[in-house]
Structure formats: structure tokens, C-alpha cells
Amino acid sequence: MFTAIFGSVEQGIIYAIMALGVYLTFRVLDFPDLTVDGSFVTGAATAATLIVLGYHPALATAAATVAGFLAGCMTGILHTKAKINPLLSGILMMIALYSINLRIMGATTETAIGRPNVPLSNVDSLFTIFFGWWGNLGIDTAINNVLISIGIENVPKTWGTFFIMIIVTFAIKIIFDRFLKTEVGLAIRATGDNDKMIRSFSANTDTLIILGLGISNALVALSGALIAQYTKFADVSMGIGMIVIGLASVIIGEAILGTKTIVRTTLAVIVGAIIYRIVIAIALRVEFLDTGDMKLITALIVVVALILPKFFEKRKERARKAKRRAERTLTSEQEAKQLA
Question: Which residues form a coiled coil (predicted)?
């Protein structure tokens, strides 16, 4: 059980990067971007293909991020320049990326024909390179010995992925937080809140939307590239339902930690992504559920995450109203006594 939850936490930290991208479009820009399902695979496909072709994993990951940025920018161009509905522009780009991703992975074959998946079992990735250095530190042995001494028998093989992804994800979070506080970041936030107002200050909202979508999908593609290297394969169908997972992470995090500040909200998104993966792992250990039920479980989690905050808010509101009525009743009684 411990190793299953630990693996879910590792994946949750990686998926949190994707969730930050979803947060940027859906919450900051107020743009329903469905490109995510395609750009996630674009990141995975680009990184996997370049690694198989012999490029360094760091360069492959950077190229995957750029590919995601370009995909997001294209969605923005379809909406702002071609005047296509936001939802439809995302759907069109998602459909186009399916074929593009097949072509990208097909570059690993001699004929360059579309290929549905690329295995990474026999090549180096960012994680395997890092593990070569991490294994000599002896940190895994020290932590596992402590866990065994307190009665935990099934311990992880390595803690390297956990620590490196904590550092990477929070570094991205800090950069993301600071960006949203810059002049451009504030303009993007204002565009999502009130585009007419920001246009009155001579800001080019089209450019801001394109930039915001580009950054969002760059984060999504980066997450896809890291997931491909973590799981040692890239598959054309690995992005199905990714937008729902991202939204679930955002909604769960906001329900738990709130949204008072940008720093707190982005932290909530990361926490939400981790909690989501843990809930999925626990749910799949129930006897009558299997991996085919994952999408159903995801939908139920989102429904619960949407309903519970409203339920608790209504309870608080009723409690506040009851308190005010009690105060008014007490005041009325005191006034009546004084008049008597």
C-alpha cells in the first residue's frame, strides 16, 4: 500500500506541472482550452522520438516544451485571428495534433510512417541519468532503513524521482508565480478578468491570449515529456482525458487550500494533483474496480470536488444567518425590557 501511494505521489508531482498549465487557461485566462489532450502527447512524443534518435534527454525535453508552446500559440491564433470559438479552436487543434503526434513518433521508423507508440526501455532518460548520480549518495538506503525500522516493509527502490521532481515542480511554481506578478502577467490576468477594460489601456489582448495559451501548453507538454521518461514509453492515447485530470487537480486544490493569493492558489493546484493521484490509487485497490474504471472515478472525483465546497459554503451561510437572527432577537428582547 505504501509503495502504491508513494508512486502516486511521484506521478502527482509530475502531473502538477500540467495542472499549472490548465490553471493558467481555465482560471487566469478564462479560456476553455481543449488543446491539452493533444499537447500532452506532443510533449511525450517529441521527447521520446528525439531520445530514441540519439539526442540528449535534456535537449529532447526542451524541444518538447517548445513544441507544446507552438501548439498553444496555434490555438490562440485560430481564436484571435480566425475568430473561431474558443472551445472549437481547442478541439480543432486537439484533432490536428493526433495526426501530428503519429507523424512525430513515426520519425523513429525508417519509412517515417505514423507510429502509435515509442518505447524508451533501452535508452537513457533524464531520470536514468539522474539516478546514476543519486545512487552514489546513499540517501535511498538511509531513508529506507528508517522506514523498515518503524515497521514499513515494502519500501520504494529509490527516492530520487520524488526529490528531483519536488525541486523541479516548485522551481516552476516560483517562476510561474513571479511571472503572473510582472507587467505581462498582470495584463494576462486582466485579460481573463475583463478584456474590454484591458483593451481600453491600449493592450493587445490577442497577443496576450496567444502568449497565455502558449505558456499553458508548454507546461502541459513538459509534463508529458517527463511522464514519458518516467513510464519509459510514449503513446498516442496517453493524453485522453488529460483536461479532466487537470481540472480535477485545480478544483480539488482550490477546495482544500482556497484561492486568496496567486502563491496559495498555485500551491493548491500542486497539492490537488497529488491528492487526485492518491485517491485514484486507493480507489483502484477496491476489489470490484479495475483500471478501466479510471475515467469514471475521475468524473466522480470532479463531481464531488465541485459539490462539496458549495455544500459547506451553504452551511456556513445558514450558520451566519442563524447567528444574525439570534443577535437581532436578543437585541429586540433587551430593547423591550428597557421600554418596560
Answer: none
